[in-house]
Design brief:
The protein is about 20% helix and about 20% strand. The chain has 3 helices and 10 strands, in the order H-H-E-E-E-E-E-E-E-E-E-E-H. Strands 1-2-3-10-7-6-5-8 form an 8-stranded antiparallel β-sheet, covered by helices on one side. Strand 5 and strand 6 form a beta hairpin.
Length: about 240
């Protein structure tokens, strides 16, 4: 009798475990496989633009342009291929914008989108960050503009000579040349497509920028550029000034 009861208890326990596992997998699938934005269309457009940029000039934004009364100007030329909160794989959330110039390494220029104080840490091969003491949309907080991929696949940088490694708190005005688009992925010999990755990073309230790779530490860039750049809200049209 004891063995029968034990067997029944084990059976109930296993059913409960499998039921819980099913619920967890269902929730995971909903949020990371179903609810997450589908990048298929954008990926197709990116490949088309990289191969034939001259065929699609209407897809591109122009460096220095502002969409109506947007606080930020466009930081570079090209097609805004991937958006904030895009997803390239289960669990992944893209923390910024990827703008593809459609040119080879080191050709498409990149500019400061807003006034601020530029830092380039000593070990940064392709990256700079600009501190904005007063967020134009919320003046009581500090934010940061993060720019990366400004190097070739081996890590030879295309950043302006005005900002060597170790640069700290150099004031730059909107439109200052920062460097040029590259394809450095962080791993030498394993390039990404030539583009600029741009994100708006939050402050830790102690004067330091947070980890840019975590989307919760970044801001939706849509209101800063006055374009829908949030993948969860993106219409089917190409993201350009309305």
């Amino acid at each position: 009798m004891v063995n029968v009861r034990s067997s029944q208890s084990l059976k109930k326990f296993l059913i409960a475990i499998f039921s819980l596992l099913f619920v967890v997998l269902t929730v995971f699938a909903y949020f990371f496989l179903i609810k997450r934005p589908d990048t298929t269309r954008r990926s197709t457009h990116v490949m088309e633009y990289i191969r034939y940029p001259d065929k699609h000039p209407e897809w591109a934004v122009t460096a220095g342009d502002r969409c109506e009364n947007a606080p930020f100007s466009m930081p570079t030329n090209g097609y805004i291929g991937f958006l904030w909160d895009d997803s390239f794989r289960p669990g992944h959330r893209h923390s910024g914008l990827d703008i593809f110039g459609g040119m080879e390494n080191g050709i498409t220029p990149i500019y400061a989108a807003y006034d601020g104080y530029l830092t380039r840490q000593s070990d940064w091969k392709s990256t700079v960050i600009i501190r904005i003491p007063s967020d134009p949309l919320q003046p009581d907080r500090q934010i940061w503009m993060y720019y990366t991929h400004m190097a070739d696949e081996q890590g030879n940088d295309f950043i302006s000579e005005d900002f060597p490694p170790g640069t700290r708190e150099i004031f730059v005005k909107t439109g200052t040349l920062l460097g040029y688009q590259g394809n450095f992925s962080g791993t030498p010999g394993n390039p990404t497509g030539v583009h600029l990755h741009f994100s708006i990073v939050e402050d830790d309230d102690e004067g330091h920028f947070l980890n840019e790779t975590i989307i919760e530490n970044t801001l939706d860039p849509s209101p800063y550029f006055n374009i829908i750049l949030n993948a969860n809200q993106s219409p089917p049209e190409i993201p350009i000034c309305p």
